[in-house]
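Quick start: read one record
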Amino acid sequence: MTSKRLQQAGFTQIELMITVAIAAILGSIAVSSMRDYTRRARISEVVLATNTCKGVVTENYLLRDEAPDAGTWGCEAATGATAYAGAVQTSSDGVIRVAITNMDGLVNGQHVYLVPMLSDETSPMVTPDHLGRSVGVWLCGSDWKPVRNALPANCRADTTSYSSQTFN
């Protein structure tokens, strides 16, 4: 009489545990990437919300004879134009500061800055010296590194030196 051994098919517990561990690691990477992608999209929306104010400051630099005080450029708002853009404020030199709201604990309460620059792209415009001149370019960035990392690639300047200005 010959005995037949039954072959068992299936996975061992070790194989199942390794598979579950790999799936968990891939899932955590996907969740982290999705959170970063969502933050980037929302912060891009904050930057886009400044377009109106950029136009107003640009026009004021060309047309004004006297330097305005902080908060009197004509584009300030207590609330932003989007769900993620908070208060829009300006300094006496026309630097625009927009608060980030309704995102996550890492970036809520931080700011995006837009600085009017001369055509040389290295010198910030200052009032009253540059009144009557056109804004050459806008320097865009933040004074908080996690915000800079989430900004669009053309908007990642370190604007820490501008964050100490008076904004209203």
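The longest helix spans residues 13-48.
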